Amino acid sequence: MPRKLPLYVVKQKTRHGRVVFYFRIGKGPRTRLPDLNDPTFRKAYEACLKGEPLPKPGRADPRSIRWLIDRYKESGDWMKLSEATHRQRTNIFKHISEKAGDMPFSMITKRAVENGMEDRSATPAQAGNYLKAMVGLCKWAVRNGHMDENPCIGVEKIRFRSDGFPAWTVDDVARFCSRWPIGTKQRLALELALHTGLRRSDLCRVGRQHLNGNTLTMRTKKTGAQITVELPQRVIDLIAATPSKGLFFLSTEYGTPFSVPGFGNWFGDAAREAGLEKNTHGLRKLAATLAANGGATAHELMSQFGWTSSKQAEIYTKGADRARLGVKSSRIVSEQLGNVLAPHPTSSEGFSAKSAKISKS
């Protein structure tokens, strides 16, 4: 659910795509406020409520860590990141600024980054996200002449085993479908996710503009890769049987497209109502598993699921190949042992006459 803004606070997107905040009562004058995550926001907001002038912001030291982060967040590199990555890294940088924002950024050394990893070692996923954020910041700083070298080079990730979001099973799908029949948006969301393998950020915006006959083509939001899939006629009929407004296959009750978090919450509620604690990414995993088990190659999986490298695809193809090769190998073993261990009418059960003769000699 989107964060609720304080009273009289409005947000606006600049021509550069940056979100800014203003204090405004009715149609009165607007007063620019710091970002909601900025430590100075609360004082500025309270001053506006009292009708007092805003406290003068202290100018960040041009050599400080806070200054470097602020400049990075104004860069084209930052603008290229997804909304979800913005939220995640803004939170990471907020904690860094609160703890060491006034220190010169020359203090960002390999040892300092490793200490940051150590502080987060209890939650390896957070440590990994912290390292990604610092790599992005320092890579930009080196390219723009603020740093001579990237201190993140050589910092090792914290290894941990995790299967991530749980994958759906075929039984889970049947259970969901028994709760959400044809004609409901929840059923259409499930089937679109399974048949296309789209991420939730793309399920929010997929629509008739992407469909030509039974062929669906779109450019994914996360990687920018173009995917093309063919929908079976039953899914085309399902789209036609599901009420919708506008171009989008899935929309809110107001006919507007879902936000990415909103869609995730909505589908999660539908799954829980069917007795399942799972999400749309688990459907993507099931679709990839079914494709790999059916013989799809790594490049075929990349084409459907929008992966830009074969590394992710090979997670599924290797598992499928191991299963097929394991079955094939076991059959070879069984065939080799068949002549020796198969029951024979002229011998004791379980051994052939030839093997019994060998054992006697």
From TrEMBL:
Domain Tyr recombinase: 163-330
InterPro entries per record: DNA_brk_join_enz (IPR011010), Integrase-like_cat_sf (IPR013762), Integrase_catalytic (IPR002104), Integrase_recombinase_N (IPR010998), Phage_Integrase (IPR050808)
GO molecular-function term, one example from the UniProt record: DNA binding
Residue ranges, annotated region (Disordered): 341-361
Keyword DNA-binding in record: yes
SUPFAM superfamilies the UniProt entry points to: DNA breaking-rejoining enzymes
Signal sequence region: none
One Pfam family named in its UniProt record: Phage_integrase
GO biological process, one term: DNA integration
Keyword DNA-binding part of the UniProt annotation: yes
Assigned keywords, A-Z: DNA integration, DNA recombination, DNA-binding
PANTHER family noted in UniProt: PROPHAGE INTEGRASE, PROPHAGE INTEGRASE INTS-RELATED
Family: Belongs to the 'phage' integrase family.
Protein name from the UniProt record: Site-specific recombinase XerD
Natural source organism: Martelella mediterranea
Taxonomy of the source species: Bacteria, Pseudomonadati, Pseudomonadota, Alphaproteobacteria, Hyphomicrobiales
